[in-house]
């Protein structure tokens, strides 16, 4: 706890949180490896189906990479103690998450499940869809907390930081997903 009574980003995490973070990272690493291994096994070098809309995949990937700009801006504002300043960045990321959901749902229309590529593609993008919904809820909660209870937002700055790290992890996983499913 800092001298002013507020928690800072540098407060040590409890041991349980460290174990949870390790489990979370291990889970994501195993999912990424499973996607890569399954893609190699199922398609055996047959390439990406022609019905998969490459333009949508490239557009969504570029959007995800550009979304790192508000993430880094919000982290800088958090480190400076500007709790109100992160609200615009969280709002921008909220819009990106909604666009990503629309793009994923649109991409489902271009790939028939009978292609053999569609089943695992739909399951994996559905997994991303759930995480984008979770990110939207986290962004909404952070925005509401920051705008309605600024004192609580100051005490719980680490929550905003974790939401931003969650989004950064989703960006990394999306880029890996793009490499596996669109560039295989």
Automatic annotation (TrEMBL):
GO terms for molecular function: cytochrome-c oxidase activity. Residues 22-184 form the Heme-copper oxidase subunit III family profile domain. One of its GO terms (cellular component) is plasma membrane. It comes from the Bacteria. The chain crosses the membrane at residues 21-43, 55-74, 86-108, 120-143, 164-183. It is a multi-pass membrane protein. Signal peptide: none annotated. This is Cytochrome C oxidase subunit III. It comes from Acidithiobacillus ferrianus.
